[in-house]
Structures are given as structure tokens and as C-alpha cells.
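Weekly modeling sync, notes
Attendees: S.R. (lead), two postdocs, one rotation student

Agenda item 3: backlog of single-chain predictions. S.R. asked that every request posted to the team notebook include the full sequence so nobody has to chase files. The rotation student volunteered to paste the first one in as an example of the format we agreed on. Action items at the bottom.

Example entry:
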Amino acid sequence: FPEFVRYNREIEVYNQKAREVMEELGVEVNDLYSLTSAFDHSLYADAVHFNDEGSKVLADAVIKACLPEFK
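Predicted structure, as returned to the notebook:
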């Protein structure tokens, strides 16, 4: 979806600043943006929303990041 490239650059700048703040505070970050930026179009329902398969990939990443905190 090339029409969203400008917005992606803004997101990347914002995420970098947020990552720096979280690092200073000792807060772990689960970077789902990096994961989804590697998605091909088959994981999207439209230009913004993920389809069921894309949502499952995201859910799995969240579970993988959170699960160790509950052990």
C-alpha cells in the first residue's frame, strides 16, 4: 500500500522515540510494528486492518512476549 509510506515514516520516528523513553524507564517493548511491516498484503483485510491470519500472527507474538511474565 504505497500511499501510506509517508505515514509509516512518521510511525517509525515516533516508535524510535518511544523505544528510547521505554528503555530509560526499564520498560520492555514488544515491537509489533516491526513485525507487521514485514507482512505481505495477504495478511491484510484492507489497507489498514489485518485479516484473520494476520491477526493470529499478531496474537501469537503478543502471547509469546507476555507468557514468560506469568510463569
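Discussion: group reviewed the output briefly. The mean pLDDT is 90.
Action items: rotation student to repeat for the remaining queue; S.R. to check formatting next week.
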